[in-house]
Design brief:
The protein has 143 residues and is mostly helical. It contains four helices and two strands, in the order H-H-E-H-E-H. It has helices at residues 2-34, 38-70, 84-95, 109-141; strands spanning 74-76, 105-107. The protein is elongated, with a radius of gyration of 18 Å.
Amino acid sequence: MNMLIAIALTFVAVIGSSSLHYEAIQRLDRLARRSSGAYPALLFVICGLVALHLVEIGIYAAIFHLADQTLALGDFDGKAFPSTMDYFYYAAEAYASLGYNNVIPIGEMRLVTSIAPLNGLLLLTWSGSFLFSLVEDWRGKGK
């Protein structure tokens, strides 16, 4: 039963963050292309993308907290995370595929932790592709 809950949480994280990413990029694209100047729009888009990724990391942090504290789907190698910032930091490391974390997930928590870097990598490269295409379009228009 715990594995089914972990699979469901993983799907919630992936689908939720990907849907959020799609909607946010669409809105950022519309705003940027309506802008009169490329430089201010570029700064706005970059800030928007950073904020978007922080929210997506927050989704994973909330799921890690829920899985650890409420659902008991595993543990983090016996280490207690005393604050929500610890979950956020762990989620950021997993999301960004940093891999130098000294905390090792145990139990069904490993499933969510193993999918977070894959999802993060896809969303980060999607943002990079979006930013690249936006700048290339501006260059082509001579803005």
